[in-house]
């Protein structure tokens, strides 16, 4: 009988660790992921293997990324090399465009709350190789990820991720499902990358900077919020009302603004 719990290991605040332990919620998450034999599954932050054990039972094998050396050592005592391939690394620093090169990935994880947004952006670099992603995140973060234009939770995270993924909030997970219990409710989100050929053409660097500037001053109108990128006339040329506030625009409108900003920048350099 394999050990179910790593005795004496305390959740480390610097790694944002909260370990899932409730069997009901573990089962519900595993059913949502629906792992199959042959799937190239990567789990970020397997921790004490609550999900890992169940996923391996379903798929036969998993690759896991774990930054905590003590937990990595524990995981090696729980699984054979044929069951678990362990990458001891910081998920934020991995080259997600080349991990398990040549394979179509399914990425899962209970993401640390303290690095969730930067990690979601880091994962975008390998999105063209991903089938789907299932993550447990702070409810507030998931609500922002799936928010629609015109809502209070709609912001930079919403726009940037919705440009690249179709997202579905599946269900909430209460604090009592974890040890130690976090002070917030968690949610499960499913992220399915949009086909590369369907993505609107845009300079991603300009797009990201413009969207970031817009929501940094979200109470201002666009004519003020993105003035570094476009004049009022430029905003209108992109088919957008300069008097609108940033949360009123959908992803396509931001793409048009970024493309107009890029065009005008090119024209200026050509002079």
UniProtKB/TrEMBL annotation:
Gene Ontology terms, MF aspect: 16S rRNA (adenine(1518)-N(6)/adenine(1519)-N(6))-dimethyltransferase activity; RNA binding
Cellular-component GO terms for this entry: cytosol
Cross-referenced SMART domains: rADc
Subcellular location: Cytoplasm
InterPro entries: KsgA/Erm (IPR001737), rRNA_Ade_diMease-like_C (IPR023165), rRNA_Ade_methylase_Trfase_N (IPR020598), rRNA_adenine_dimethylase (IPR011530), SAM-dependent_MTases_sf (IPR029063)
Catalytic activity reported: adenosine(1518)/adenosine(1519) in 16S rRNA + 4 S-adenosyl-L-methionine = N(6)-dimethyladenosine(1518)/N(6)-dimethyladenosine(1519) in 16S rRNA + 4 S-adenosyl-L-homocysteine + 4 H(+)
EC number of the protein: 2.1.1.182
Chain sites annotated for binding S-adenosyl-L-methionine: 18, 20, 45, 66, 90, 110
Residues in Ribosomal RNA adenine methylase transferase N-terminal domain copies: 25-195
Keywords from the UniProt entry: Cytoplasm, Methyltransferase, RNA-binding, rRNA processing, S-adenosyl-L-methionine, Transferase
Gene3D superfamilies per record: Ribosomal RNA adenine dimethylase-like, domain 2, Vaccinia Virus protein VP39
HAMAP family assigned: 16SrRNA_methyltr_A (MF_00607)
Role summary: Specifically dimethylates two adjacent adenosines (A1518 and A1519) in the loop of a conserved hairpin near the 3'-end of 16S rRNA in the 30S particle. May play a critical role in biogenesis of 30S subunits.
Family, per entry: Belongs to the class I-like SAM-binding methyltransferase superfamily. rRNA adenine N(6)-methyltransferase family. RsmA subfamily.
Protein name, UniProt field: Ribosomal RNA small subunit methyltransferase A
Species: Sutterella megalosphaeroides
Gene field: rsmA
């Amino acid at each position: 009988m394999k050990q179910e719990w790593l005795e004496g290991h305390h959740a480390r605040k610097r790694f944002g660790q909260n370990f899932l332990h409730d069997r009901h919620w573990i089962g519900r998450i595993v059913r949502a992921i629906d792992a199959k034999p042959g799937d190239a599954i990567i789990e970020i932050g397997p921790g004490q293997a609550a999900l890992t054990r169940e996923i391996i039972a379903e798929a036969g094998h998993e690759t896991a990324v774990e930054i905590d050396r003590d937990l990595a050592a524990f995981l090696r005592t729980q699984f054979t090399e044929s069951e678990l391939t362990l990458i001891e690394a910081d998920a934020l620093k991995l080259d997600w465009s080349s991990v398990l090169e040549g394979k179509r990935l399914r990425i899962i994880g209970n993401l640390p709350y303290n690095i969730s947004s930067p990690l979601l952006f880091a994962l975008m670099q390998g999105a063209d190789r991903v089938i789907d992603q299932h993550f447990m995140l702070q409810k507030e973060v998931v609500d922002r990820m799936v928010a629609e234009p015109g809502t209070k939770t709609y912001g930079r995270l919403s726009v940037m991720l919705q440009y690249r993924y179709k997202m579905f909030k599946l269900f909430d997970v209460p604090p009592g499902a974890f040890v130690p219990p976090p002070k917030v409710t968690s949610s499960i989100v499913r992220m399915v990358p949009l086909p590369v050929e369907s993505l609107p053409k845009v300079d991603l660097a300009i797009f990201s900077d413009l969207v970031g500037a817009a929501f940094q001053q979200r109470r201002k109108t666009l004519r003020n919020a993105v003035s570094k990128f476009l004049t009022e006339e430029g905003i209108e040329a992109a088919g957008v009302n300069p008097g609108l506030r940033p949360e009123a625009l959908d992803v396509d409108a931001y793409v048009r603004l970024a493309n107009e900003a890029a065009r005008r920048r090119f024209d200026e350099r050509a002079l």
